[in-house]
Design a protein that fits this description.
The chain is α+β, with helices and mostly antiparallel strands and 216 residues long. It has helices at residues 3-12, 39-42, 54-75, 86-99, 146-160, 193-212, and strands at residues 20-23, 28-31, 34-36, 104-115, 120-130, 133-140, 171-176, 185-188. The strands form two sheets. A five-stranded mixed β-sheet has the order 4-5-6-7-8, with helices on both faces. Strands 1-2-3 form a three-stranded antiparallel β-sheet, with no helix packed on it. Helix 3 packs across helix 4 (86-99) and helix 5 (146-160) packs across helix 6 (193-212). The longest helix has 22 residues, at 54-75. The N and C termini lie far apart (61 Å).
Length: 216
Amino acid sequence: MDQVETSRLNRLTAPPIPGLTFEPVAHQYAYNGVVLPSVTQILAPITDWSFLSDEDKAWYADRGTAVHTETALDDLGDLVEESVHESIRGYLESWRGLLRDASIELLSVEERVCHPALGYAGTLDRRALVNKRHAVIDIKAGVKLASHGVQVHGYKRAWNHWPPKLEHIQTCYTAYLQKDGKPAKLEPWTDTLHDQQFVALLTNHFWEKRYATRSQ
């Protein structure tokens, strides 16, 4: 890795939050030893994929993992071009096309965050400056869903729990990658109901954990 790539890796690799850990096999977050639910788990009640077969669920999951892996490696300057599968190539070029927009400046890649007071954690895909405003960007290879707005507002809350306030996230986006390689569509989520829905789902998660499993 040359000096320019090393500089980019250092710049886009955010320092970890002290006390926050992640166990990848179990996909489990913990803060100071206390296990925390993930943003994805919190959103489960509004992300029902039961209409898909197990085979289709696995296919979409594998595609999403591959897209996230390749785009992250590319942003960090560590992607081996020859390793990119042709089925993922278009999505990668779509992400690259979006980043050619001069109004977007990446700040971090695959950054783990948590909100100790509210008791949850997650990994935001990208922090960036978009039109000079601090933003969170989630990357999707599928269709637009309202739950995506709830998801990014969860990441926003977790990041904004920590100082300094001048770096707090102001705007939330989802980048919808195009299979044909055309620049991704950057969709903003401005409705405050998305944030309120996340808090409601979080409350419901902990309510069910405490009360729903108790015998009546």
